[in-house]
Amino acid sequence: AQSVTQLDSHVSVSEGTPVLLRCNYSSSYSPSLFWYVQHPNKGLQLLLKYTSAATLVKGINGFEAEFKKSETSFHLTKPSAHMSDAAEYFCVVSDPGTYKYIFGTGTRLKVLA
Amino acid sequence: GAVVSQHPSRVICKSGTSVKIECRSLDFQATTMFWYRQFPKQSLMLMATSNEGSKATYEQGVEKDKFLINHASLTLSTLTVTSAHPEDSSFYICSARSEALLETQYFGPGTRLLVL
């Protein structure tokens, strides 16, 4: 069975400082992993995805994530937070047979001025 | 590319009435569409998986007679909440994928349903 664990339900950073949102996964297969962002009352926007190519994945809006098999992690980072980054972030693993998504519980990012 | 729309964005209805939500893939053909429900400050809960031309597959605990899903074309899926009650009030989100997009799902903007 596949699962993802988002280790922090809330993260607060000051504007201009680095962002780290943590995600660990469990998978019997070589996983496909995703990060999505959700702003209030909106749908989910794809930030980036890992599908067994390069382990360092660059996404939109300056975000990137590194797939570390030895640590079963796929943490999301950004060098400098912007106020507009305040949102809910979901780490997701895809089931290879059904294409269903298994969601983490989400991390709410707060950016302080 | 890979844009998914939902309509309506917000709906208020009386208890006992039915509500239909549309999900459209605007620039690709969606082999599979998914319907999710999201409660406040929670993650998304998958309700059902819909493949074009076949019956939807519902997740355990989701009443198929209450949440009717139709995927009649490669660009349109509908979710009908029948005989809605206040406990059905929620944020409903659809997503779509295609064979070309592989496992990546693209999400609609969501529909806020309030049942009075």
Structure notes:
The complex is a heterodimer of chains A (113) and B (116). Chain A is an all-beta fold. Chain A is 0% helix and 54% strand. In chain A, the strands form three sheets. In chain A, strands 2, 5, 6, 10, 11 and 12 form a six-stranded mixed sheet that branches. Chain A has a four-stranded antiparallel sheet with strand order 3-9-8-7, with no helix packed on it. Chain B is mostly beta strands. In chain B, 0% of the residues lie in helices and 52% in strands. Chain B has strands at residues 4-7, 10-13, 19-25, 32-38, 44-51, 57-58, 67-73, 76-81, 90-97, 106-107, 111-115. In chain B, strands 2, 4, 5, 6, 9, 10 and 11 form a seven-stranded mixed sheet that branches. A four-stranded antiparallel sheet of chain B has the order 1-3-8-7, with no helix packed on it. In chain B, a hairpin with a 5-residue loop joins β5 and β6 (57-58). The model of chain B has no long low-confidence stretch (mean pLDDT 94). Classes of the chains: A mainly beta (113), B mainly beta (116). The A-B interface holds A 32, 34, 36, 41-46, 49, 51, 90, 94, 96, 98-101, 103-106 and B 4, 6, 32, 34, 42-44, 46, 49, 91, 93, 95, 97, 102-110, 112.
Proportion of β residues of chain B? over 45%
Largest interface, chains and sizes: A-B, 22 and 23 residues
Give the count of helical stretches of chain B: 0
Spans of chain A with pLDDT under 50 lasting ≥5 residues? none
| Mass-distribution shape of chain A | globular
List low-confidence stretches of chain B.
none
* Secondary-structure element series of chain A: EEEEEEEEEEEE
Distance between the termini of chain A: 41 Å
Q: Mean pLDDT of chain B, as a whole number?
A: 94
Helix proportion range of chain B: under 10%
Query: In total, how many beta strands of chain A?
Result: 12
Radius of gyration of chain A using CA atoms only: 13 Å
For the terminal residues of chain B, how far apart are their CA atoms? 37 Å
- Which sheet architecture does the biggest sheet of chain A show? 6 strands, mixed
Q: What would you call the quaternary organization? A: heterodimer
Q: What is the count of DSSP helices of chain A, taking H or I runs of 4+ residues? A: 0
CA-based shape of chain B: globular
Number of strands of chain B: 11
Question: Helix/strand-derived class of chain A?
Answer: mainly beta
What is the typical, i.e. mean, pLDDT of chain A?
94
- Class from helix and strand fractions of chain B: mainly beta
